[in-house]
Design goal:
By secondary structure, the chain is α/β, with parallel strands linked by helices. The chain is built from ten helices and eight strands. The chain has two domains: 4-211 and 303-309, Spore Coat Polysaccharide Biosynthesis Protein SpsA, Chain A (Alpha-Beta Complex), CATH 3.90.550.10; 229-299. Helix 5 runs parallel beside helix 8 and helix 9 runs antiparallel to helix 10 (266-299). It binds uridine-5'-diphosphate and magnesium ion. Magnesium ion binds at residues 96, 98, 100, 203, 208. The chain crosses the membrane at residues 231-254, 266-291.
């Protein structure tokens, strides 16, 4: 029987320090993965350091190493997409370059996939050790909210570290949306998934590419991509404001009839104006978010552009 091929996809942005360590670590544990042939697919996401040279070097050294280099930084989601699209493996696994996704789990993941019982083996962190507490707090709140307002099943602490069969890869590649929110996409495609848990590991070298602000924008993107609840909320806001206004009208008419009409209430009027126009602007902003995403989708721009590929 022919051996199956396992593709390891690694999105890399400024990982000149981590990438060689990553390759070495996986290389050293290869005998535990002897039931499959390996293929590496490094995606250089427009790095500004020597990541591309590291990729070239590794390719020269080991012909199973392939790489794609983007013309600029397109983001990790685009990197994952490119990797999936270019991968040839019967099985595919996505891993970070910084060894925060422990390669030691690969044999276990592989055994679940090979058993044929699962199409996808996903991982989640059970803690967020070594992360600023405020970031963890926001992250937890985000997942709670997201699961309330979206039908895609998005798991707290879920990593992009997943192994899947060709079936799942093809399903994900067929989703050509421009605004990619991988965590949502993985949940959306479904298929039988096995969850493995692990404790957070800190990155081996280099530093995180995610600032708090970037994560915040990412969270908003996720909500807009996988839920239309904010649009419903905007309408509900409108209905509530109408009800409040109606009650006010009744109160004012009754008061005028009973007590006469002393001209007063200017400050309260200003407050109401401010509140209502604030809510209106907010709702318009929500609409704008969806409109802008729809606008970008209709342009059908490519998800990434390749500068060099081997
Ligand atoms: N990454 C990428 N493009 C980006 C940002 C990050 O390909 O624009 C890669 C990065 O090289 C790493 C992975 O995505 O392999 C995770 O990034 P990072 O470790 O900075 O995120 P964290 O683990 O802190 O969430
Ligand atoms: Mg990391």
């Amino acid at each position: 029987m022919d051996k199956k091929l396992l593709t390891i996809i690694v999105p890399c942005y400024n990982e000149e320090e981590s990438l060689p360590i990553f390759y070495k670590t996986v290389h050293e544990m290869e005998d535990k993965l002897s039931s499959v042939d390996l293929e590496f697919m490094f995606v250089d996401d427009g790095s500004k350091d020597r990541t591309l040279e590291v990729c070239r070097q590794l390719h020269k050294q080991d012909e199973r190493v392939h790489y794609v280099s983007f013309s600029r930084n397109f983001g990790k989601e685009a990197g994952i997409y490119a990797g999936l699209e270019k991968s040839k493996g019967d099985y595919v696994v996505i891993m970070d370059a910084d060894l925060q996704d422990p390669p030691a789990m690969l044999p276990e993941m592989l055994s679940y996939i090979e058993s044929g019982e699962y199409e996808c083996v996903a991982t989640r962190r059970v803690d967020r050790k070594g992360e600023p507490p405020i970031r963890s707090w926001f992250a937890r709140k985000f997942y709670k909210l997201m699961n309330k307002i979206s039908s895609a099943d998005i798991v707290d602490g879920a990593r992009d570290y997943q192994m899947m069969t060709r079936k799942v890869v093809d399903a994900i590649v067929s989703m050509r949306e421009y605004n990619r929110f991988s965590k949502g996409i993985f949940g959306w495609v479904g298929f039988k998934r096995k969850w493995l848990e692990f404790e957070n590991v800190e990155r081996v070298a280099g530093e995180t590419k995610w600032s708090f602000w970037k994560l915040f924008v990412y969270a908003i993107d996720g909500i807009v991509a996988f839920s239309t609840a904010p649009l419903v909320m905007a309408s509900i806001f409108g209905v509530i404001m109408c009800l409040v206004a109606f009650i006010f009208i009744v109160v004012i008419i009754v008061r005028t009839l009973v007590f006469g009409d002393p001209t007063s209430g200017w400050p309260s009027m200003v407050c109401i104006f401010l509140l209502v126009s604030g809510i209106q602007l907010f709702c318009m902003g929500v609409l704008g978010q969806y409109l802008s995403k729809a606008y970008l989708e209709t342009k059908q721009r490519p998800i990434y552009l390749v500068q060099e590929e081997e």
